[in-house]
């Protein structure tokens, strides 16, 4: 289980692959539909190139049977120039085919990457708490990257080789149908062999991509700043290196298997095709000796030239079939993400609130991560606009989950959460993001400058607005004292700043966003007392005039809340002001006494 997963959240696993999905091929073809005009141009170029290619052997036949024996120098010159022109035209067509097909393939890959990223952006928070980050990165980078050869060249290769094979066979039949039959006798066997090889490589490719995802996960987790700190302080650097080496060794075996799968069988096809000229010369000789029709030297050479020309597109066509089957495993992994159900979607007719007062109401709210356990049960609470609510309780009582329901990081399984009387499930995403801001214990900063991190909340914020927000968060003086000021790069996950400084940067970012509803999720629980006081001053400035829901572990931060709610087992156990709850002598009073003992012990 990952350390950031809740105990009651199962780890995400992809649905089982359906090997009998004919729709998958049609779905792949639909990816190319927006570019069918360019592909039609490629098809025309391919057809023209194939006609030019098969014309060369006929020119060669005329050279050998007519021009040279007849000493017709003029005709010989024209035929030679024709053969040179055919080569030049073929080269030009080939370059244009490559340019267009590569452009189309790269656009398809871009569409896939963008679609997967957009789908993941619409996933609920639960998906990311159940899925390894390295797995997500591997699907976008390795799986889509692994399809590059297929999507950039397969369509052109398929059309080019198929057209080449058909045109060549027609030309061979025009020269001599008997030799053509001899040349094509083994073709069905070759098709069957390539199909078997493709199935074998598809299976190995699926295993290889899973292994690459496992390695990406290990790299992401162990080579992050936090992972390095943990590994070194726990003395696990050597064991992590050994574990990575073991995973890499498994990948070596899979890569070798993928490279060698069916290699001997495909080589056999090449050997047989290369030996066909000898067979054709033998067949022609036998036919002549047994009284069969005479075949001219020019026809024989032209036919062998065509037959050798048939070798390349035939082998390439068979290899393309193998490559397509191999790529189906990659497409399957990508489609698994594209087919993820969007559990939290914008409503068909979203409500947009232009002016948000900030009243938050929970009406008989129930929530469960799965059917086995209910996390929240029958929560009825109202936080008037501009007022504050503190939520306290033991670990696992549902405090953070309650806060996450307001911005729809999760959707309720029963009841409603309302902002200004409107169910949050009916609000458009823009209204919801403008309405609710969250500052959590887990502060996330991008590996960018301080200014860029703050502008993430408001891209068009001016320098004056950024400085004002930082001042309100009690962090401006510290930033201004840095050599690069607001251009200082914060480092991976903000590790160049202390915990309190990162927390105040997060507060400044939220101030810049200026949400009327503020969720403070254990925002100071990981800080020392002195830093907590500094951050608390910033929080007080941020909370002024806003509807504030504070989820707290340290009760010293919630004494002044307009109402305090004690959760226990997902239910409201107590509610009231600090003074009322202390006087009642219940669960809250016990929590206060625990905090007092903890402070005295320190």
Automatic annotation (TrEMBL):
InterPro entries: AAA+_ATPase, ABC1_TM_dom, ABC1_TM_sf, ABC_transporter-like_ATP-bd, ABC_transporter-like_CS, P-loop_NTPase, Type_1_exporter
TM regions (residue ranges): 39-60, 75-100, 155-175, 181-198, 266-284
Keyword Phosphoprotein on entry: no
Sequence segments annotated as region (Disordered): 1-20
UniProt-recorded Gene Ontology molecular function terms: ATP binding
Statement: the UniProt record of this protein carries the keyword Transport: no
Membrane topology: Multi-pass membrane protein
Keywords carried by this UniProt record: ATP-binding, Membrane, Nucleotide-binding, Transmembrane, Transmembrane helix
Protein name from the UniProt record: ABC transporter ATP-binding protein
The organism of origin for this protein: Streptomyces luteireticuli
């Amino acid at each position: 289980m990952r350390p950031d997963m809740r105990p009651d959240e199962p780890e995400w696993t992809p649905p089982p692959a359906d090997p009998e999905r004919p729709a998958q091929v049609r779905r792949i073809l639909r990816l190319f539909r927006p570019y069918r005009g360019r592909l039609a141009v490629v098809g025309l170029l391919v057809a023209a190139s194939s006609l030019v290619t098969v014309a060369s052997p006929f020119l060669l036949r005329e050279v050998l049977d007519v021009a040279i024996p007849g000493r017709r120098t003029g005709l010989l010159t024209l035929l030679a120039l024709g053969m040179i022109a055919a080569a030049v035209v073929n080269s030009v067509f080939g370059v244009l085919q490559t340019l267009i097909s590569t452009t189309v393939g790269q656009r398809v890959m871009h569409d896939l990457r963008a679609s997967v990223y957009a789908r993941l952006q619409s996933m609920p928070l639960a998906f990311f708490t159940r899925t390894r980050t390295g797995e997500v990165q591997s699907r976008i980078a390795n799986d889509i990257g692994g399809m590059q050869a297929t999507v950039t060249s397969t369509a052109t290769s398929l059309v080019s080789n198929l057209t080449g094979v058909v045109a060549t066979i027609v030309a061979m039949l025009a020269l001599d149908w008997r030799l053509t039959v001899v040349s094509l006798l083994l073709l069905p066997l070759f098709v069957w062999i390539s199909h078997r090889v493709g199935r074998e490589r598809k299976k190995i490719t699926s295993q290889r991509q899973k292994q690459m995802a496992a390695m990406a996960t290990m790299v992401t987790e162990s080579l992050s700043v936090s992972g390095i700190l943990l590994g070194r302080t726990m003395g696990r650097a050597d064991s992590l290196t050994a574990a990575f080496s073991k995973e890499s060794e498994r990948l070596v075996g899979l890569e070798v298997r993928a490279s060698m799968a069916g290699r001997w069988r495909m080589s056999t096809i090449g050997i047989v095709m290369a030996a066909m000229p000898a067979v054709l010369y033998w067949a022609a000789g036998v036919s002549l000796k047994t009284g069969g029709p005479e075949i001219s030297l020019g026809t024989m050479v032209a036919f062998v030239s065509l037959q050798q020309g048939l070798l390349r597109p035939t082998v390439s066509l068979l290899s393309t079939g193998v490559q397509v089957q191999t790529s189906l495993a990659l497409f399957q992994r990508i489609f698994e993400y594209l087919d993820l159900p969007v559990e939290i979607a914008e409503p068909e007719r979203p409500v947009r609130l232009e002016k948000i007062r900030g009243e938050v109401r929970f009406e008989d709210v129930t929530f469960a991560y799965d059917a086995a356990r209910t996390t929240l049960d029958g929560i009825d609470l109202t936080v008037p606009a501009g007022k504050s609510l503190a939520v306290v309780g033991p670990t696992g009582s549902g405090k953070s989950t309650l806060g996450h329901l307001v911005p729809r990081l999760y959707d309720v399984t029963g009841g409603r959460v309302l902002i200004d009387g409107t169910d949050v499930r009916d609000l458009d995403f823009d209204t919801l993001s403008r309405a609710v801001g969250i500052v959590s214990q887990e502060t996330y900063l991008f590996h960018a400058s301080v200014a860029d991190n703050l502008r993430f909340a408001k891209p068009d914020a001016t320098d004056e607005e950024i400085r004002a927000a930082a001042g309100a968060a009690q962090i401006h003086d510290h930033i201004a004292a840095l050599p690069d000021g607001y251009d200082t790069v914060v480092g991976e996950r903000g590790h160049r700043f202390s915990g309190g400084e990162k927390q105040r940067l997060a507060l400044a970012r939220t101030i810049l966003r200026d949400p009327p509803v503020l969720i403070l999720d254990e925002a100071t629980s990981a800080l020392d007392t002195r830093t907590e006081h500094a951050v608390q001053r910033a929080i007080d400035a941020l909370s002024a005039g806003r509807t504030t829901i504070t989820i707290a572990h340290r009760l010293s931060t919630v004494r002044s809340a307009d109402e305090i709610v004690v959760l226990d087992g997902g239910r409201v156990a107590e509610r009231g002001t600090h003074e009322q709850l202390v006087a009642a002598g219940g669960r809250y009073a016990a929590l206060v006494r625990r905090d007092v003992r903890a402070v005295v012990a320190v």
